[in-house]
Amino acid sequence: MRALTTAKIVDEHAHWIAGDTTLVQTGDLVDRGNASLAVLELFARLEEEAPLHGGRVVPLLGNHEWLCLSSDYRYASKHELAWLGENVPSGKASDVRPAVSRWLDNFLRLYAGGANLDVLDRVYTEEERPKLNNIIRQGADIWMDIFGSGGPYAQLLSSRRIATVEGKGKCRTLFVHAGLPESVVPKLYGTVDALNEAGGAMLKYHAAPRGAKPDAPSKDAKRIITGNDGPLWIRSWAMDRAARVCPAIETVVEESQVRRAVVGHTVQEEVTEKCHGHLTLLDVGMSDAYNPGGKPTVWECEDGQVRIVTPSGRKNFGSRHDDEL
């Protein structure tokens, strides 16, 4: 919310105020704090509201969304699992989204009023602690149900893109969670749209109820989501030496007909450029799970000018001059 309000995307009540802006979120909305489900609900609301004002919201799939979908809850907050165990006593997956929506409404009411948001954290007394492990286990069972086959959050995430190309002219940019190896695009799928179609088949297969599964996706489609060197997991774009990785990055940028690629996934001290401006590493560990108090940061491109937006203001960003773009 601090990032979105600082960039004037939403007001303090989380209502869209950005007109025809396109908002891209590069994945990993979950697993980094005690309100993953509320964040998913927030973006679901923005996806519905933005088009009413001419805008768009494009949340991408990150590797942590896939971990949730694959029943891996080791990164889930125990506080959030306990919250599920207590606030969804029926244990029914269908009851979760309404409960989370009520929590989000309460959060936004307090946020808009400037309240200390620690009041939302449940504090367990010594008498309650012996029951806590059971509550967490109940929450973990619910977590696997809501992200499993037929689950409400599996269905929500089944429409996520793997990558997207947004903007025009000098703002035309490829966004992807971790990177887009040239072995995937252009060599295997040719275009970002074809990549998203294949990845979407994998997500829809997972999200479908067990008795209504579509045809199983291809091995290549599975590797899009699960491969260590695929778009959700690859680290070489961020971590390898420029001389080794930049030629491949520049090929992907050229084939995708964009000015640059922007990725998250690998945490940096600050937003960083690489490969003569062809790659921007966006993830600064924004959640306070990484940095106490959080580190709200937004990358912005408007009329060809790139800026970084933080609570301290907007500043121009990029080492490449306009005539080089």
UniProtKB/TrEMBL annotation:
Residues 21-145 form the Calcineurin-like phosphoesterase domain. One of its GO terms (molecular function) is hydrolase activity. It comes from the Eukaryota. Signal peptide: none annotated. SUPFAM superfamilies: Metallo-dependent phosphatases (SSF56300). Coiled coil: none annotated. It holds the Pfam family Metallophos. This is Calcineurin-like phosphoesterase domain-containing protein. It comes from Pycnococcus provasolii. The lineage of its organism: Eukaryota, Viridiplantae, Chlorophyta, Pseudoscourfieldiophyceae, Pseudoscourfieldiales.
